[in-house]
Amino acid sequence: MSLDIEHIIVHSLFLDEQGQTQLATRDQELATGPAVSHLMSELHHIYNTKAGKIFGYFNEEDTGFRDLVRRVEDESLSFTAFTHQASERLLGELKRLDMNEQGVLLFVRYQWLGAHYLLIALLDNKDSVTVTDKLEVSHASYLDLGKMQLAARLDLTELQSRPDSHRYFSFIKGRAGRKVSDFFLNFLSCVEGMDPKAQSQGLLKAVDEFCESRQLSKEEKQESKALVNKYCREQLKEGEELELRELSAELGTDDDLDFYQFVSEEYQLEDKFPVDRSALKGLTKYVGSGGGLTISFDQKLLGERIQYDANTDTLVIKGVPPNLKSQLLK
Predict the structure, then answer these.
(1) 328/330 Cα distance (integer angstroms)
(2) Which pTM value belongs to this model?
(3) Which of 23, 121, 161, 204 could tie 151 with a disulfide, CB 3.0–4.6 Å?
(4) For 9-126, where are the alpha helices, taking DSSP H only?
(5) What is the mean pLDDT of residues 23-49?
(6) Phi, psi angle pair for 186, to nearest 5°
(7) Other C-beta atoms lying within 10 Å of the C-beta of residue 195
(8) Whose CA is closest to 239, among 159, 153, 161, 123?
(9) Residue 260: CB partners within 8 Å, gap ≥ 6?
């Protein structure tokens, strides 16, 4: 799949001697040679397959960043000037919140599958060592793309065609213990919109009730849920979103009962949304934890190796897993 880089530039956030964040900017865009193309291809793949992204849209009360986007899109502002002003805005937000960040600040406008995107990422620059062609050990620095923590992507095509959408922005959540909204959402004049986890949980509920409405047997329910699970995991693997019409076609119809029509009538699900990986367990497993106890097992085992008595609130397991059994015997 072709990825066409239209504009790309990097700047730097660094800490001065007093430990305060400062900004160093580049005056010209990067030339799109093999190294830049490889960087962007890898960055795009990592971003697409990164789990747990959140979605959002422009805040109507703060039009600062949106105005910059509008100006660069109508070409009243050059891409380089746009990134300079955006970087200064980010630096101002960091100072306002008394936060210190450092790293390589990347801005790239690119086209993929007919859609135009603006990706902004703060990347860690790591120090390491390497062995040269002359077998000398030398100092080296590299961008740690795999641990990308702060990034946002604006779907410019979605923004233009569906300005009322609540999902043309997407974000990687950020480092543990700190939300992107600390400064990144404010910098981008953005508020959170669609919640992929809530969408995925709604999907699981819809699949359960769809199976009930079709009066499927236990085995048929498990087959349907396994099919949904397979489809969702394939989409995750490819970095693609779930499409309800596609999933409906996979499930098929019975007596004119179509899954897409079923969810359209009773559920508030988007036609397309990213699957939350953690929610998929609910399709094939029963999972619960509390009071120091965590239990997870395949749904097909209930009524066979595993029995539940609601009156006594007791779970009986026949055939304890060998590794657990050995621990219990000790």
Answers:
(1) 5
(2) 0.72
(3) 121
(4) 34-49, 64-73, 79-96
(5) 91
(6) -65, -45
(7) 16
(8) 153
(9) 244, 245, 247, 248
